[in-house]
Amino acid sequence: MKLQKTYILLLSICFINSCIAAHKSILQEIENNTIGEITFVKNVLPPKDYSKKDILSSFDLKDCKDLNIRFFLDKPLLHYFQKLDTNLSTEELLAKGNFQFSFYVDNTLIYKENLNKGAGTTAEKSTATVFRKPFISSANEDSWGRFLWMRFMKRGGGEESLTEGSHSLKIEIRPYLETKDIITGNIIAKGEITVNVIKPKVTEEQIKVQSIAPDSGWDISEDKYDTQKIKELNKKILQEDFKDITSIVVIKNHKLLLEEYFNGADRTTLHDTRSVGKSFASTLLGIAIEDKYIKDENQTLHTFYTLKSFKNYSPEKETVTIKDLLMMRSGIDGDDSNPDSPGNEENMYPTPNWLQFALDQPMYKESTNDKKWSYYTAGTIILGDILNKKVPDGLEKYAHKKLFAPLGIQNYQWEYTPQKIANTAGGLRMSSLDYAKYGQLYKNNGVWNKNKILTKEWTQTSLAPQIELPHTKDEFYGYLFWNKKYTINNISYEVSYCSGNGGNKIFIFKDLPLVIVITAIAYNKPNEVEKIMKEYLLPAIID
Questions:
Q1: CB of 427 closer than 8 Å to CB of 386
Q2: CA pair distance 525, 167, nearest whole angstrom
Q3: What's the whole-number mean pLDDT along residues 186-194?
């Protein structure tokens, strides 16, 4: 009996080992056959479970919830860097290079990107030969693959090229190094898949310009505009080419020209416009200065705080001014675009005291008070706290009395800091028509219904191009407002604007009688507001 059991056990072990060996053989065959190839798979699978049946030959773009690429390299990426430049050290190569992706639709190059040098880990670049990256993820997986795909689709021409029907999508991967110039190597992986594009059906009734209902609080404009262009825009939104737009409001010559809502929003919706709320901190500071609760924007932090009681004290921090914080040039080591920055906003939100976090941050080591621009959300928390300390009855009541009530804005919602102070970093919610009132206040140089709410000097200084943004051309920052130009029919138009994550904007044009509000919920995604403005709204509205 024992002999029989032993025999059965040995047979079972042999069977299991043969299965493992067979699977390893299949996996090895897949790796060997796909070295230098990009394959497309739906599910997130560990390499040991990967098989030929998982490789997609096509997918339906509209219904696709998950799409991953997997590619096998012959050597780690570092090996290819070494071929491109034999004089650089390993550390220099890893700091200066990454993958270059080229996207072809129907054999036409549509988009090419040198992946940010910080994408991917040093270990991955040094040793990995098997990669799995999500392009589309129902779990919103945090990966450079997702953002690469979104940039290709939203900014790189992907959506325009992938029209209704079936298309071939080909991707090529090369190594690149950025030294004095960009050096690109040969193709190290490529792959192709069929993309089926099915657009939602929309009717003429659905895409027509939406009628403006009574009781908007605005006079209705009788100015003409290109209705066909607006219908084309509406179709793009309804067919989800321009995703997650919730409202568009246009004020021309103080009158309501367009009022349109999408994706379940309506006139009563209080939109979460994220960092649009930062601009309101600038407004309230201007009012508080005029009311003499704050001397001026040149007051320094040491006027309001005992800075030695916070971490990372330095004499330079004593000299940071309100103006520095308004212009995002405080010199405090906070940069929301850099995940490694100690003052990054994502490090602030889990903390129990956001003001403490903001004032604890060190100064940039290389800083003087002629400081560089970096987007520091925590700095606006400092501004909100200063306001809350200095104005009567606190920031929230002061804002209602001095700004919202005079504008006739009654229905709005603040978000709050952990200390229950109105959050001047963002999240102030109100209707699109009320956001338009706020924009028109600036267009009116601080006057609403013949009542001065802000001084002309403060409004103009706030909107003016005070500091040029790094890595841009003709884009600037004022006092928590952005500034740039749109060129339409070879004529440039200067515009200042509030901006929030997701595609939320309030545009205030300098030389055109226009205020435009766009709200959207494309949070943490590339958005199409630039295309909407340049290709549809402005061409339709400008005479």
A1: no
A2: 24
A3: 98
